[in-house]
């Protein structure tokens, strides 16, 4: 069906290097369900969602309706901060399993490095031991919090999903991840269109050389660096385009030109800024009633 390479995680589990990001902003149940069905139909075998996306039920319905066997789908969800703490996290995973209509999850991540993420991670470790989760990890953990968690946990995270794109290539973070055999997974590989991403002249110029688009070049750059990607789109044609990156390879000159685009700064938020912590605390307070 597709030629997406598999990545071997630090516990031996195999994960597709490219998957479908199922965050459909303001999407209805039917829109999310159809997007996932379309993604599976064109060849995606990894679906990424999160509790805070409020779309697990729609994804579960899509998986149930799809003719793709569940064992051939790599399913990821993320625990939201409002569900952190040992027992709350375990309870929330049970709810996610029910919504997704499955009895196991391939990967579960802690969504943000705030709140009682130690208690939450211990819950993931125990659920991993019980076989309900095949791999565990984190998201948005910068080097300091990541190393701290590694040093005071039983199981090294298999994945750290972080903002990663041509403008913020996460080289410093990736250096630490490689030291502990954690794979970097990119969210926002298109920078969500910021910095005029889709009109970037460097990417377009390089793409013309290979008969590819600028966005395809950006995805290929990440994957050639060993990064896992989860581009998102609700348009079937674009879903197909995002998969058409495995039949070419950027040469070293092109790779270096894209490396030079790195600003080493987030286009969204700084996790070290107290204002960011306050922002997520507010979102968490507002989200609590939705997890009862």
UniProtKB/TrEMBL annotation:
The keyword Oxidoreductase applies. GO terms for molecular function: oxidoreductase activity, acting on the CH-OH group of donors, NAD or NADP as acceptor. It holds the Pfam family Aldo_ket_red. The active site is at 53 (proton donor). PANTHER family: 2,5-DIKETO-D-GLUCONIC ACID REDUCTASE (PTHR43827), NADP-DEPENDENT OXIDOREDUCTASE DOMAIN-CONTAINING PROTEIN (PTHR43827:SF3). Belongs to the aldo/keto reductase family. This is 2,5-diketo-D-gluconic acid reductase. It comes from Companilactobacillus alimentarius DSM 20249.
């Amino acid at each position: 069906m597709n030629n997406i390479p598999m990545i071997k995680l630090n516990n031996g589990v195999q994960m597709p290097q490219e998957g479908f990001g199922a965050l459909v902003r303001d999407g209805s149940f039917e829109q999310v369900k159809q997007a996932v069905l379309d993604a599976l139909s064109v060849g995606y075998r990894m679906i990424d969602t999160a509790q805070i996306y409020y779309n697990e039920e729609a994804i579960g319905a899509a998986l149930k309706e799809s003719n793709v066997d569940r064992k051939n789908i790599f399913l990821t969800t993320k625990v939201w901060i409002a569900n952190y703490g040992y027992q709350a996290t375990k309870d929330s995973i049970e709810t996610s399993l029910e919504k997704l209509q499955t009895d196991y999850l391939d990967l579960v991540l802690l969504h943000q490095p705030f709140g009682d993420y130690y208690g939450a991670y211990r819950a993931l470790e125990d659920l991993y031991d019980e076989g309900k989760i095949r791999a565990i990890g984190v998201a948005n953990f910068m080097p300091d919090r990541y190393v701290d968690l590694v040093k005071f946990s039983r199981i090294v995270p298999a994945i750290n999903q972080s903002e990663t794109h041509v403008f913020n290539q996460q080289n410093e973070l990736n250096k630490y991840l490689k030291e502990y055999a954690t794979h970097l997974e990119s969210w926002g590989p298109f920078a969500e269109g910021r910095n005029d991403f889709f009109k970037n002249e460097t990417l377009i110029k390089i793409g013309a050389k290979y008969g590819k688009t600028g966005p395809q070049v950006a995805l290929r750059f990440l994957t050639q660096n060993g990064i896992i990607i989860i581009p998102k789109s609700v348009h079937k044609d674009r879903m197909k385009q995002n998969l058409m990156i495995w039949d070419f390879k950027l040469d070293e000159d092109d790779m270096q030109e894209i490396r030079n685009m790195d600003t080493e700064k987030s286009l969204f938020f700084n996790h070290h800024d107290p204002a960011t912590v306050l922002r997520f605390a507010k979102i968490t307070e507002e989200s609590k009633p939705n997890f009862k």
